[in-house]
Amino acid sequence: MSMSASTNPTRPFWAEIEVIFDPELPVEDPRLFAERDPAYNPLATLERMLQRQTPTHRKVLVAGTIGNGKTSELHHFATRLSGDRMFVLVDLWRHFQGTVGDAAALKHVETWELLGLLGLAIHRAGEELFGHRWKDEPKLLQKALEELRKADQGDKGPAIDVAKLAKGMVVVASLGAAALTGPFGVAAATGLAITTTVTDAASWQWKIGFSGRERREDQEIHKVLGAVNAMIMALQSAYNRRLLLLVDGLDRAGEDRMTALFVESGLLGELTCDAVWIAEDSVRRLDSRVRGFAVHELCNVPVLDRADPTQPGRGLGFFRSLVARRVAVVVEKLGKGPSAAFPDELVDRLAYYSGGVTRDFIKMIRMIAGEAWDGEAEAITLEMVDYTLRESRRAKERAMHAGEIELLEQLMIDRERKLPDGELAGKLVADQRMLAYPNETIWYYPHPLLTLALLKPKRGSAG
Q1: What CA–CA distance (Å, rounded) separates 26 from 33?
Q2: How, if at all, do strands 193-194 and 243-250 pair?
Q3: What are the φ and ψ backbone dihedral angles of 273, each rounded to 5 degrees?
Q4: Do the Cβ atoms of 225 and 217 come closer than 8 Å?
Q5: Are 449 and 408 a contacting pair, CB within 8 Å?
């Protein structure tokens, strides 16, 4: 009979490993954060740009596939800036999923609704985290939003109440260490501060993100933009600091929404502050048509070598660091733990077959932790790794058709490793069966899990 979790000395460790390797949560604890090589991390470049004291407002879309660590990078980016920048960070995906109670509505959010949500986030950050006393700016926002809500819905539904709705916005914010006193002598927050929601899906009163509506033209929603800009300027004037707006979650909105928000409309680029937005991967293809924003790409960690993708690349060290940091936190919490629970060579094997997709890697570690718990193991083993890779491979292969397989096999023997033409390639990228990697230029390769058994390229048919 197996020993219980309470008596076996290793089981509490593996239980905590399962908890700390949660693939759905961003890294908000700086102790857990592993640094990417600045050579392939655009946020490192942005940090330098934002330190320049020039009149230009920097507005950037950071594009990338879901699960490659953009949210964690943005939170760490905010932490590094918290000492000397005033910023407000809002996660739209969490807001729609939790407070609105309709994650799919994010795929239909209109420009004026998005501006309104940002206004609500700024309102709450200013009032509750900075100690700011608003004047007429929230009333202007409420009037502008209510006019558009009535134009959409008539007199149906409750009126927009900015003060109440703002309570439903969870925001992370900082005034920076230099801003010690707010207006009217109110002590202002320094460092990082975060609100908690007091509004849930049952009481959120603004119905947004309906599908099938006629898009509002920019000239119809300038009042909303003006009201949000008035709030931005009020904060910047009160604290004599430039605001940086950090917006997460639009990487789940889809290509149609990216086109509507950043190509067909230019209003988001007219906000009078610096801004970094996490955006859906399709923005890369829309780059030349995006209005008001520069586009940067956060690729997967380069765990494959471009010259020979069957060999590991320079990104393996990132995943070793990721594991080491989380294990250290678990050991500190428990006061003990196995001394060599994750051998480097096995972590490297998992990192390679994760394709450098952080979420895939974390899912694998969590699966292995369950196996180690069952086996009361001191360390993960090659057998556990191979089992995890086999199960992960099966999930990645599921429901693939012959055309997808053929395209990926051709890519494997393409020496240039360029993105193939056509919608099928775009679908494979969206499904994370074809991955993008940074180098002198962006190059593409099948997800390594697919190369374990499914893909069998015919040598000599290309290149």
Answers
A1: 10
A2: unpaired
A3: -160, 165
A4: no
A5: no
In the chain, what is the greatest distance between 2 CA atoms, to the nearest angstrom? 75
Residue 150 near residue 56, CB atoms below 8 Å: no
Number of neighbours of residue 26 by Cβ within 10 angstroms: 18
Give strand ranges (E) for 96-212.
171-174, 193-194
Give 59-113 as a DSSP string. EEEEE--TTSSHHHHHHHHHHHHTTT-EEEEEEHHHIIIIIIS-GGGGGG--HHH
CB-facing half-sphere around the CA of 32: CA atoms within 13 A: 19
Residue 32 and residue 29: Cα distance in Å, rounded?
6
Beta strand pairing call for 243-250 and 274-279 = parallel
Q: Provide the angle, in degrees to the nearest 10, between the axes of the packed helices 358-375 and 11-20.
A: 160
Sequence-separated (6 or more) residues with CB below 8 Å from residue 47: 77, 80, 81
Closest CA to 357 of 431, 261, 266, 260: 431
Where do we find the tokens 């407002």? 57
Name residue 57's amino acid.
Answer: H
Which pTM does this prediction carry? 0.84
Angle between helix 222-239 and 137-153 (nearest 10): 160
Beta-ladder partners of 274 = 244
Dihedral over Cα of 162, 168, 169, 171: its sign = positive
Residues 104, 108, 113, CA angle at the centre, nearest 5°?
115
Q: What is the pLDDT along the chain (463 residues), one digit of tens a residue?
A: 344 444 678 999 999 999 999 998 888 788 988 988 888 888 888 888 877 777 889 999 998 888 888 888 888 888 888 777 899 999 999 999 999 999 999 999 999 999 999 999 999 999 999 999 999 999 999 999 999 988 877 777 788 999 999 999 999 899 875 443 443 333 344 456 777 766 676 678 898 998 877 788 888 899 999 999 999 999 999 999 899 999 999 988 888 999 999 999 999 999 999 999 999 888 877 878 999 999 888 888 999 999 999 999 999 999 999 999 999 999 999 998 888 999 999 999 999 999 999 999 999 999 999 999 999 999 999 999 999 999 999 999 999 999 999 999 999 999 999 999 989 998 998 899 999 998 778 899 999 999 999 999 876 544 4
Q: Is 84 exposed, middle or buried (0-12, 13-18, 19+ CB in 10 A)?
A: middle
